[in-house]
Amino acid sequence: MPARSLARRGGRPLAIALALVVAIAAPALTQQLAQRLLRYAAVVDGPAERPLRWPVAVAVGGADEIAVADAHGNRLLILHRVGSGWPLRREVALPAPPAALAFVGGEYLAVLRGAGSELLAVRGGASAEEPRKLALPDGIVAGRIAESSDGGLLVWDARRGRVAKLQGSSVVARAAIAGNVTALASDGAGGFWVGIGERGALERFDAEGRPAGRMRVPSESPVPLWPAGIVAEPGGRLFVLDRHQHRVVVLDGEGQLLGLGGGKGWEPGQLYFPDALARLPNGALLVSDGGNGRAQLFDVIGSGR
Which label site among 14, 48, 112, 147 has the fewest CB atoms less than 10 Å from its CB? Predict the structure, then answer.
């Protein structure tokens, strides 16, 4: 039979068969990449008498200190490293449910639901200082927040649909965003990344708030990626927390997939509707694993190249 006739008669079934082979092989490849890049390190679930129930945000205060915002009971837990564990150092009652968290200038800054025009500042370490309120300038209503690379604050202004870069009480840069920002992070070079949940997209802006690039994160299922957290390395590698597919996606600076971590489940090292992502100075990743009522730490053990 002529080759053209064979292609016409059998090409479509062959293409379908190849697609099925690829679809079956993809999970195995995913697992290989995950094992090579991210390794489960520890579960952080708070004090035994009052464990975490609904963690919605995390932040890192230093090599030996982390914080988790728990919307069940409206509290901020500050924990410190002791050996391989993370016991409670301090618990701070919050006046409303927390929505976002960042560590800036020695303080944990919390966005509280219904009070987005101001932040609650909590001193890190073993400080006994009372939390204080910080009014945001220019009528900003905060959604996501993050520390900028120069020590300032990045704020998603949900009221005006833009990201504002703050130094003290001054707005030094603005960027209009088309869509709802579900993740926000410094790019390490004066600019910042945002994640747009409904588009499954990442967009980068420079220090002046000008567009500097965009990428769409690959998905292995019909469920689109929902970026809930971003960590950017100086070399360009990105770690993106995908809430809908219960995983951490590792990308290079061009958006190419390097590896994955997590995966849907309840066992240590698995995630269930995670909410936020942060990075320790040693490179480990801290994930707010909201659906499982805990936070988790992952070590980064490879480059993916």
Answer: 48
Section 198-227 average pLDDT: 86
Domains of the chain by start residue, with CATH: 3-300 (2.120.10.30)
The three-state (H, E, C) secondary structure of the chain, written as one string: CCHHHHHHHHHHHHHHHHHHHHHHHHHHHHHHHHHHHEEEEEEECCCCCCCCCCEEEEEEEECCEEEEEECCCCEEEEEECECCECCEEEEEECCCCEEEEEEECCEEEEEECCCCCEEEEEECCCCCCCCEEEECHHHCCEEEEEECCCCCEEEEECCCCEEEEEECCEEEEEEECCCCEEEEEECCCCCEEEEEHHHCEEEEECCCCCEEEEEECCCCCCCCCCEEEEEECCCCCEEEEECCCCEEEEECCCCCEEEEEECECCCCCCECCCCEEEECCCCCEEEEEHHHCEEEEEEECCCCC
